[in-house]
Sequence to fold (192 residues):
Amino acid sequence: MTRHDRNQYLLSAAALGMSALAMFFAFMEMRSSDRQFDASVWPYVDLTISLREDLMALDVANKGMGPAFIHEFRLSHPEHGEIEPLELMELSGTRELMSSSSTTSLTQSVMSVGDIVNAFRFEGEGIGPGMATLIRDLQIDICYCAINGACWNNSATTSFRTPVAQCSLQESDADRALDAFGGDAGETGDTP
Fold:
């Protein structure tokens, strides 16, 4: 191998190395951009229980950076199974103390950034102490997704949201397309 050939070989190897290095940095930049986009649309849904002498309420807030698509909102109790918010009054024995109540359906709704929704609110003298024992074992689960398809489950038993592949009540894209079309895949729309 001549000196000229060796120099050409070294220059080619250096050019190949520089190209590989440039591709590596381009890949890392693209990956960083994807992560920045994901972080810019992440919702963070937080649950706050208020309990006073005359009040029991649950507020749900989107404290994240993007909208939250709420697919599931469930209340359950070890002794009573899945329950509706108004059943809390019956189970705690405080229904006769209630002077006003309000509930909001969160399932299949969208929460914008900064939204605070009152899931339920019960007012009446003495409600708080009556509800205190019941809510100690109350399980509150909410599953929601971001616009990029990432989903999380917040549970009152965990201190932070848990990533999930999909919410159990989340419709598939095919289900949404069929609903928008207005029928089954087996329906053609032709009349005999």
